[in-house]
Amino acid sequence: MRRKTRTIKLGNLLIGGNNPIWVQSMIKCYSEDVESVTKEIKRLKRAGCEIVRIAIPTDEAAELIPLYKKECGEKIPLVADIHFSYKLALKSIEKGADGIRINPGNINNKSWIREIIKTASIYHTCIRIGINAGSLEKRILAKYGGPTPEALAESALYWTSFFLDEGFDNIKMSIKASDVDTTVRAYRIYAEKTDIPLHIGITEAGFDTYGIIKSSIGIGLLLYEGIGDTVRVSLSEPSNREVEVCYEILQALGIRKTFPEIISCPTCGRKKIDVIKLARTVKKNLKQFRKYLKIAIMGCEVNGPGEAKEADYGIAGGKTSSLIFSKGKILKKVPNEKAIDELIKTIKEVEQWEE
Ligand code: SF4
After folding, report:
1. Structural domain range at position 332
2. What pTM does this model have?
3. Which residues contact residue 74 at a Cβ distance below 8 angstroms, ignoring those fewer than 6 apart?
4. CA-CA to 236 of 20 to 30 Å: which in 155, 201, 206, 338?
5. How far, in Å, is the centroid of ligand 1 from the Cα of 336?
6. Which of 303, 309, 310, 319 to mutate to test the pocket of ligand 1 (most atoms within 8 A of CB)?
7. Which atom of ligand 1 sits closest to the CA of residue 272?
8. Residue 2 belongs to some domain of the structure
9. Are the C-beta atoms of residues 154 and 162 closer than 8 Å to each other?
């Protein structure tokens, strides 16, 4: 069951409570490069990104916030990512960022943090507090002997109380370490003690299959335990890929079903059709289709007809011809070489979908 959290507001988006678990990514090109950032925001929007974060390392970047906000549109909040400089935090808020993300560990001066809180209150800006294993307070590191889960959680709880004591509660927390075990345990400790919404992810997860596996295990464990209100998969890959993987994790857990799910058999010596090629072709053709459908592609008669019948659409391969099913009914029997075209045509017709 999902952890009960309070609802906070980031731009026009409500986070926490019963709201969906929103998908976030971060701009990867240089923040001052208007053309590239604009293109990346467009790509993220096409991929379904729901919160866009951008690094604000310079005054020049902060000046561009209104322009980037316009590109994001009304529905997608823009979050300014700030390190070290409270002045850039203040400027980003004043320039209209919907949210800022700060790491108190590297701003390291309570009066500056109070100033950020004061300005954020005036502008109704959301603040994400980022606790990172790499920048924990010295006193906490000394107490625990290193960035343990307990140390991370203590820092997160300390800063939560600090913000709440200052009368500011439009906050979200993230607690990051680059290993799954530390991250998951730290989030668990924190989640038990507060109702503050959580942004989750495994930081610096890497790339390719390993990066995705590491993120999926960490994020998956937390989501399965009901922890997490916004999510980002941090990969050394294009930002739109992060968004795709986020949705895949949410869908695999049955939390948000947003795109066609292909149930395909692993194939074996009994296969009558080329399942691997067919499954990939279907996925490619339905890449922009934004509705949950269960599509079964099964290689033979062993599990084929059964699985295909359960699905919204399906193919069960036969020796020379395949059966195309929809919601339990056989729609067509087609020669194997035409099976995939017919399946895609059928889905497009029935679902009235045009690219
Ligand atoms: S459905 Fe048929 S081809 Fe596919 S793995 Fe099972 S037995 Fe093999």
Report:
1. 262-350
2. 0.92
3. 12
4. 155
5. 16
6. 303
7. 3
8. no
9. no
